[in-house]
Amino acid sequence: MSAKRGSVEWWTDYLTHGHKLEGMARWLFPRLPMSPRCKICSVPFKGFGRILSPFGWSPSAKNPRMCGFCSHRLPVGGADVPVAVLVVDVCGYTTMSEGLSGIEVAAKMNTFFERASTILMANDALIDKYLGDAVQALFLTGICGDDYVACAIRAAEALAREFSEGELRVRVAVHQGIAFVGNVGTPGMVDLTAMGDVVNTCHRLQGVATAGAVITDEETWTMIGSPPGWEASGFELKGKAERVATRQRVSFGSAHDPVG
Questions:
Q1: Helix, strand, coil share (%) of the chain residues, nearest 5
Q2: Gyration radius from the chain CA atoms
Q3: For 33-68, what is each residue's pLDDT tens digit?
């Protein structure tokens, strides 16, 4: 007997094994040009995506960053599952904002969001949130498979490389573990997101990273095979009882260099 829709068992299966239709959509839709897109299936809301609007692939009234098909298909609820969280933040955002008009800041951040989102989607990320000067993304086994942590690290390195030159520089953090992932909110406004210590720790790590670097914890670095070129360090993170052992990769070539 299948699990009841919306139950913890249902959500666990959905998040860890994925959905056949969604898998097909995530292969096709990112290849269609134009943003913005649904955060789950990546269907574009403009351009060619307009053809799909009558079938439910248009912005949802519950959350305009999700299409109606995905929003209405997912019930409220969630489960504790393995997830890798990535946070990418623009360095010096406050200083940059002081010297520019609001319109100029928005234009620069839209460029950042577009470039970052393209890289994240290419690495099978679920783009969770845009946070003013940052993006939070999730990597789940139901989308990425068993190498979800490696997908997150590859995305982080690609982001650091993309912004290694030019005015916008970034810090990127990756942290993994068990976190609550699900559809939360009120009946009229829901959002698929992650909650818990894994998310909080990832944001804390991003806050102590060197400008232009990718940072992760020692355990995550070990999970991806302990690759060379990552410097060992450790930080006292707010809210953590013990010092967190970390690894940082601080040297990246230009965005035109091949990804290692």
A1: 40, 25, 35
A2: 18
A3: 777 888 777 788 887 777 777 767 788 765 677 787
